[in-house]
Structures are given as structure tokens and as C-alpha cells.
Amino acid sequence: MKLNYYPDTDSLYIDLSEKKSVDSVEISDGVVVDYDSKGNIVGIDIDNASKKLSIKKLEINKLPSIQEVLVA
User: Fold this and answer.
1) Which of 3, 29, 31, 30 shows the shortest CA–CA distance to 16?
2) Can you name the residues that pair with 24 across neighbouring β-strands?
3) Partner residues linked to 28 by β-bridges
4) pTM of the model
5) What are residue 52's phi and psi, to 5 degrees?
6) Each residue's pLDDT tens digit in the chain (72 positions)?
7) Lower Cβ count inside 10 Å, N or C end of the chain?
8) Cα–Cα separations (whole angstroms), residue 7 to 11, 12, 23, 45, 68
9) Nearest Cα to 45, choosing from 15, 7, 8, 2?
């Protein structure tokens, strides 16, 4: 899973899978869910993220394993 924030567009993309997106559905104003060819969710795009989410802090609890942690 990857979280990618783009300050120039104030959007957050949550990449849930390495599979290619073949379909997208806007489930709420400015929130788009991407699906693979089997209908599985592969990503979530959130426009105006700083207005919809608290993006200044990320807390991770009880994941089974963490292979890589990057801090910018």
C-alpha cells in the first residue's frame, strides 16, 4: 500500500494494489475508487484532500509486517 499526496492538486491517492485499474467510480464528491478487471479495489483518489482529511499525521497500528517505511 502506498499513500501519495500531490500538493499542487491537493489530492491524495491511496494505492492498494499493484494491479492495473480498468474502471473508476466516483463514490462521493471528489472521491474516486479504482477497480481492477475482477472488480477488486486497487486505489482511492481523494480530491481536495486537505479539506476532507487530517493529512498532517499518519498513524499505523498493528499491521502484520512493514517492509519499508519512507519519511519525507
Assistant:
1) 3
2) 34
3) 31
4) 0.80
5) -105, -25
6) 899 999 999 999 999 999 999 999 999 999 999 999 999 999 999 999 999 988 777 777 777 766 666 665
7) C
8) 7, 9, 25, 13, 23
9) 15
Query: Can you count the helices (H) and strands (E) in the chain?
Result: 1, 5
Q: How far apart are CA 8 and CA 4, in angstroms?
A: 12
What is the strand order of the sheet 41-46 is part of? 2-6, 11-15, 41-46, 31-35, 23-28
- Phi, psi angle pair for 51, to nearest 5°: -90, -20
Contact 28, 43 (CB under 8 A): no
CA atoms within 13 A on the CB side of 70: 5
